[in-house]
Amino acid sequence: MKRDLALEVLKQHVSNEIVVAVYQTLFDWMAINPRDLNYVATGAMGQASSHGLGLALANPQKEVLVFDGDGSILMNLGSLVTIANAEPKNFHHFVFENGVYEVNGAHPIPGHKKVDFGAMAKAAGYRIVKVFSDLETFESEVVEFLNQPGPAMAVMKIEAGESYPRDYDYIHSALAREKFRQALQSS
Amino acid sequence: MSVNKDIKHPSGQAIMDALKQASIEFIVSVPDIVTSDGLLWPISKDPEFKLVRVCKEDEGVSICGAMSYNKTRALLLMQQTGLMDSLNAIRAIGIDYQLPICMMVGLQGKEPHKLSSESSSYGVRIIQPVLDAMQIPYRVIEEPEDVQHIAADIEKAYQTSSTFVFIIGRAPV
User: Is residue B173 part of a domain?
Assistant: First the structure.
């Protein structure tokens, strides 16, 4: 499944949700669906899921979608247990699994083809876990997935699609944070 | 955590009152032996606080930072080992992103009658120099009267969107 095509599908189902995304998935998403409710400033070291949890707990009326990376979540595996324990119903976690650290030289992640992210999420206590390997299935089942209360994880078996530019200056900018802050407070 | 009766300790209840005065809603924590009995256990039983138990302290930095976007106030309660483990998250989310990350850090291994700079524990002695190097403001909470500054420090951190650390040098009682 091409990542950009999967994001195009997700775009059709995103309106007022908070989207927390990381690395190449973030850059692709920013190009495909630029919007101020995209939360782009997660720092580094796999923290997207924790930012998403903070947003979900502080904004229980809003849906939070986290577009994580496989290398990223490997750096913050404990957050799966923290999230499952907190039981945020408004938390849907997509792990885009391409098996490599794509923006850092495309080196393989530890455990590629061995690690099972869905099994880890289930074992951590996520309510729902789905694995999507092809676009057609994802397209037909994504609404059902999103309509189920979280915490829920969709493992997205993807390969790179179109290569969108990596605008690090923007994602780390005060402007990006202020746009999100204003969008959140007025939504 | 043993308490020397010849030395004054801060009141855990007074610290909790200060946190409420500062409108802290969420406590995010990994247990710390210095603050366990006097703070975290009472907080866990106080319905006015929402406790988020995290597996690792850098999760808490991100959670507190993300919560601040809609002005929700949170405190990260941990041990100095967790602070040290979270320095990159604090650097990125607290300093680079200028978010109000308020932390309360128990100094495990600090002798109650000594300044942290005089502690026999290397892990204790380095905490203030590390915070100084990162240009992170902090306040040492050891004497009962130190607690009176907590609410104002938190208020300032949120008003200026900046990081602040309370170093708990003696176990709250």
Answer: no
- At B84, which CATH number? 3.40.50.970
Interfacial A residues in 40-69 facing B (CB < 8 Å): 41-45, 47, 50-55, 57-59
Give this complex's ipTM.
0.97
Q: Which domain holds residue A98?
A: 3-186
The one-character DSSP state at B26 is: E
Each residue's pLDDT tens digit, A109-143: 999 999 999 999 999 999 999 999 999 999 999 99
In chain B, what is the straight-line distance between the N-terminal and C-terminal CA atoms, in Å?
10
Question: What are the distances in angstroms from CA B133 to CA A70, A125, B58?
Answer: 33, 40, 19
What's the pTM?
A: 0.97
Residue with tokens 């101020």, as numbered in its chain: A36
Phi, psi (degrees; rounded to nearest 5) at A132: -115, 125
Contact call for residues A29 and A167 (beta carbons, < 8 A): no
* Structure-token pair, residue A171: 């994602």
Buried b (16+ CB within 10 A) or exposed e, A149-181: ebbbbbbbbbeebeebebeeeebbeeebbebbb
- List the CATH number of the domain containing A178: 3.40.50.970
Is residue A7 within 8 A of residue A29, CB to CB? The reply is: yes
Alpha-carbon Rg for chain A, nearest whole angstrom, is 15
Range of the domain at B100: 12-168
Mutate to test the interface with A, among B27, B59, B90 (most CBs of A within 10 A): B59
Q: How many domains does chain B have?
A: 1
Q: What is the DSSP letter of B68?
A: G
B62 contacts on A by Cβ (under 8 Å): 42-43, 47, 50-51, 53-54
Q: Dihedral, CA atoms, A12, A18, A21, A25, nearest 10 degrees?
A: 10
B150: helix, strand or coil:
helix
Q: How far apart are CA B148 and CA B103, in angstroms?
A: 16
